[in-house]
Amino acid sequence: MNRTLRTAALLALILTTTATAGVADAATPTKAPDRIVTSALRGSGRMEYPVTTEDIRLTVDAHAAYTSGPTFPTKSWGAFRLSHKIGTGKQAKVYWGDFTVDCLRTGGPTAVVTGTLTRTSPGHPWRTTLPEHARMGVSFYIAPKGAGPSRIGLAAPSPKGQPTLTKCMASATDARVIAGGYTLRDRVG
């Protein structure tokens, strides 16, 4: 075959392939961006505790953003504080720990929040027993009106030398909320 004919055949093949690819691209719909939905958990409450002279309270302001698919949030932010008052009167001691939220998972009337320890009250035992930025998990069941008490579960931070609590995990909601309360907004878009 002569050189001109070979060149023409090659150009025809290239043009046909390019034109077909262009049609396929035009026919393929572009994917819509993922829809973002958000969750929020807010409030303050006192949890039931077997020692009547002790008062444990949890204040939370946690938020999460989800795309249309994942079970876990794509982004979480906020803070929570656990405070523990031991004793009564002038002899009472109040210990507290502030946590930066690293996960908020929600589903119906339930939520799990985890966060890393950022500050404690002066003299708090956690300053010597916990590693820096220890993670704590808190679970919530927010009862509908008239359906009984809401509940909280605490997964305490792991002591030094122990494996760190996994992000987005907490224990069962085993303690009733006996004062205050929480509001949960689950995956609103």
TrEMBL record:
| Leader peptide range in chain numbering | 1-21
* The keyword Signal is annotated on this UniProt entry: yes
Question: Which keywords annotate this record?
Answer: Signal
Protein name stated in the entry:
Repetin
Provenance organism: Streptomyces mobaraensis
